User: Fold this.
Amino acid sequence: MKQYNAIKVKYPDAMLLFRVGDFYETFGEDAVKAAQVLGIVLTKRGAGSESETALAGFPHHSLNTYLPKLVKAGMRVAICDQLEDPKMTKTIVKRGVTELVTPGVTLNDEVLQSKSNNFLAALHFGKRAIGISFLDVSTGEFFVAEGNDEYIDKLLQNFSPSEVLVQKQYKAKFKELFGENYHSFYLDDWVFQAEYADESLNNHFKIKSLKGFGIDDLQNGIISAGAVLFYLSETQHKKLDHISSIQRVEEEHHVWMDRFTIRNLELYFSNQPEAVTLLDVIDRTISPMGGRLLKRWLALPLKNLVQIQQRHEIVKYLIDTDTFYNTITYQIKQISDIERLISKVATGKINPREVVLLKDSLNAILPIKEVAEKSTNLAIQSVGKQLYSCKELIDKISNTINDDAPVKY
Amino acid sequence: MLARETQRTGISSLKIAFNNVFGYYIEVRNTHKDKVPEEWIRKQTLVNAERYITEELKEYETKILGAEEKIAILEQQLFTELLHFMLGFIQKVQQNAQQVAKLDCLCSFAQSAKDHNYVRPQLDESTDLEIKNGRHPVIEKQLPIGEEYIANDVVLNRNQQQIIMITGPNMSGKSAILRQTALIVLLAQMGSYVPAQQARIGVVDKIFTRVGASDNISMGESTFMVEMNETANILNNLSERSLVLLDEIGRGTSTYDGISIAWAIAEYLHEHPSKAKTLFATHYHELNDMTETFDRIKNFTVSIKELKDTIIFLRKLIPGGSEHSFGIHVAKLAGMPNSVIHRANKMLKKLEQSHSSDDIKDKLKQAADEDLQLSFFQLDDPLLEDIKEEILSTNIDALTPIEALMKLNEIKRMLTKK
Assistant:
């Protein structure tokens, strides 16, 4: 119990799942909340004595069913595991928090929706502009931008993050400007410092300067990106190789639509639950990656004439060339969510069956590459050239793992 | 080993098996019980068999189990190694994912273009917007089978037809026309085909839409305040390539306030150097008079057919203005009790007599062409004199839109005081 209290003090605002033998237990107020959310039995420990506390728990193997419910209820959940084998020690087993799952930082398939991104956002209120960054840990996409409050408001609306990180002292300002609807979390002021952010970004991407990503002038944006990285390390996410680049969301590149317009036009979100949105009508994407990208295209239409016409050109080609279209869609159907699978590789959370899925998907890309490169359309040719065959990887996987590999090893 | 022992003991039904309780064992049927050698250790007796273990068997057991453990460790090792190897491919796979996503989206465009009968829009660097037989992508899918969506043409440009003033009764489809225009532009600039027969679009950089009196009571702001806030936001951010859609702006306040504000906003949009393309839906038919003073404002109406007491919505956008709001007809369609409708009709006639719309029109004209009206002013009472002073002393170039509205409101208050 002493150990529990010691750990709980470090995570006062999170629900602590404390591994005891084969069970994850929650105590005190956490237990009351957990029992409510999960519908599990609330009991007492040390009944009648002075140290009586509420207790609720579930078996460790049901973590995957209970965890999503807690996260969806908007809770931050700290998972505390036994760090050594109970057989090896005679005293109390060492325990420590191995993962902190929050709405914005989760890799759990049950929590994630395949056709939407799950963004974590961070905001930095600078002197002249507000910096903002968005990260989807499950796909490794990382965006940064900077602008006035209207622009930030629009971006928040576009990306609809599951969690927003804000500096403590701007709590009131954030609520005033952007409303109460965001699930926000407040970080200490020292996290939002330019030197700290620069350093942590450079360390993360193993680079000397952010010029390579073309974001070095977005000072406030960089600070917010630093806060995102800080939050990840705080939540015990350390293997982040899949976050390999950071992109800038250019205000000048996209059609400006403010939040009223997005709402009025019912693009992908409507106030009435049963209403049909534009996205519902035009979304014919097959893969989860496509679904997510379409949503982003809808939120950020282009202004550049050449780019727009290039897209039209490809669409025309796809409509006119049935055989090509059929091959592509047939192959895309066999591709799993490789974006999220590869992120699981980076975080070490992938299981053998998923590795096989990844291999099959990579295999399915080969024919696409082939037909695209042969296509008479230049734009499609370049897509084909940008696809990697990943032959070595496919071979290595098929040599190592059997096709009917188990989920657990 | 099984064969050897079978031979040695002469037990034909000898079996070697495994269970979780005591590992590998030898099972002997009761019929051969007497042939079991001395050194076997009996572990378990069943109804018709006995189970034994031997030293040798246990040795094998440790070997097998040990091997399984080793296999598990090896497998784990191989898997970890594989994962490590895969780390090197992260960026390539991510790239692939992006390209696949892109192809998927474009295929999706192609598919919906085929499914919904969309066409390729022509985009260019002009500031024109010409949509021929445009449809609302969502509404056209919601219609009951057999009913056809009435497509409409919309033409906007900065030189001749900058502002389209759409009047027409409630429920006639004004809002749908506004929204479909925005959606067509949006779809086009996403790279998709569009629901129209033909479309030529000069690239748009900002789309603004405002719907009058959008409810926001939960936030504690008055609807009218929200509406004015939102509108002010537009007027401050206009650009040459903006597309502005205003739906029933000014609805949230009294009729005169509403008409005045709508008028002032339309005038501002017309006079603003950006000459932003605007669709303006309203049921204040008084605004139709604006076209006389402002040459780039054009009147359109959504056609209806009047039959004795009821009306039929044709939903076709045609040039020209409309005379009535038909609000009462809509009320009737919505199933209001007859007595209410009857009374409403009577009230309307009364109001129209006492406050004939000519009156309002005159007043609006006063505000617009003050030069023409100067002599008229001088004849009138001192209050109008004050208003004249007020207007003359206003430096229009230095006014922000909000200030313009405030001024208008001020003038209005002076008038109502009398």
Summary: The first helix of chain A runs from residue 2 to 10. Residues 2-101 of chain A form a domain with the MutS, DNA mismatch repair protein, domain I fold (CATH 3.40.1170.10). Chain A touches chain B through 82 residues (CB under 8 Å).
